[in-house]
Automatic annotation (TrEMBL):
Residue ranges of domain Helicase ATP-binding in the record: 109-261
GO molecular function: 3'-5' DNA helicase activity; ATP binding; DNA binding
GO biological process terms on file: DNA recombination; DNA replication initiation; double-strand break repair
Record-given protein name: DEAD/DEAH box helicase
Keywords, sorted A to Z: ATP-binding, DNA-binding, Helicase, Hydrolase, Nucleotide-binding
Coiled coil: none
One Pfam family of this chain: DEAD
Origin species: Candidatus Enterococcus avicola
Alphabetical list of InterPro entries matching this protein: DEAD/DEAH_box_helicase_dom (IPR011545), Helicase_ATP-bd (IPR014001), P-loop_NTPase (IPR027417)
CDD domains reported for this sequence: DEXDc_ComFA
Length: 283
């Protein structure tokens, strides 16, 4: 297995010879479409502000992930979907889903098999993580690749032991800015949304936990990177307790929407009621 499968790296024109075109895909790091754009983060390159003394342009938006210029190339391994093979998978989660959780988990699997993405709108404490375990198992057993991502490092670090315990036979990879673990190929990855900038057409399923959270919400760079990391026929699952209105409008035509108003104790959230008390000033 080529360790660069699903990754994209920045190389110079001199280094391209080390990546033959029969195995690797070469893309110019910047494309000219009336304007100049970065192919890693989709930033518009302001030529007057992002030019080196030698006349070469650079991207300042994603430079913390490695220098990228108009003379650079993005290199990735060519797709090998035909190599995906079904495999047996040991699912080691010992919990039990409630009736509603089991129904939603089944819908997530059906949606994936129907090539449809899903927004899971569920209250905090409803067990969203456990509800996605069956669809993760499905994708992995079909030879696919899964990523759980979140804008927040603490969420990724909290997800890791739970996912690792449920899929003990998998070498789960955890990636974030200052993580000690270095990149290695894995069929099951947990990472921050910023790490998506390092992937290209890598995952059959990307699950985004707390999609409404900062810094993903309202960040075109991270949204572009997420779509770039998804395989052409891949699917998305968005998890949120508080979807913004613009997200609901964005997905209503293309996503299935599953809802869970119940927390683990099987009671709905308390809805405040407005009561008018005429003599409040005398109370």
């Amino acid at each position: 297995m080529n360790p660069l499968r699903g990754r994209q790296i920045v190389v110079s024109s001199e280094e391209l010879k080390n990546y033959p075109t029969n195995e690797y895909q070469h893309r110019e790091a910047m494309i000219l479409n009336q304007q100049l754009y970065c192919q890693r983060c989709n930033a518009l390159i302001i030529r007057q502000e992002n030019v080196l003394p030698n006349g070469v342009f650079f991207c300042s938006e994603c430079q913390e992930f490695g220098k990228l210029t108009s003379e650079s190339y993005l290199v990735s391994v060519k797709g090998h979907e035909d190599e995906e093979q079904e495999r047996s998978l040991h699912f080691t989660w010992e919990g039990k889903l409630t009736q509603l959780q089991a129904h939603i988990a089944q819908q997530l699997q059906k949606n994936y098999q129907a090539k449809q993405s899903t927004l899971l709108w569920a209250v905090t404490g409803s067990g969203k993580t456990e509800m996605v375990f069956p669809v993760i198992h499905l994708v992995l057993s079909q030879g696919g690749r899964v990523c759980l991502t979140s804008p927040r490092i603490d969420v990724c670090r909290e997800l890791y032991p739970r996912v690792d315990a449920a899929f003990q036979d998998e070498q789960v990879l955890l990636l974030y800015g200052n993580s000690k673990e270095k990149y290695r190929y894995s069929d099951l990855t947990i990472c921050t949304t910023h790490q998506m900038l390092h992937f290209y057409q890598a995952f059959d399923l990307i699950i985004v936990d707390e999609i409404d959270a900062f810094p993903y919400e309202g960040n075109p760079m991270l949204q572009f990177a997420l779509k770039n990391a998804l395989k052409p026929q891949g699917r998305l699952i968005y998890l949120t307790a508080t979807p913004p209105n613009h997200l609901l409008q964005e997905v209503q035509q293309t996503f299935a929407i599953e809802k869970s108003p119940l927390r683990f104790h099987q009671r709905p959230l308390i809805v405040p009621e407005c009561l008018w008390y005429n003599r409040w000033a005398q109370a």
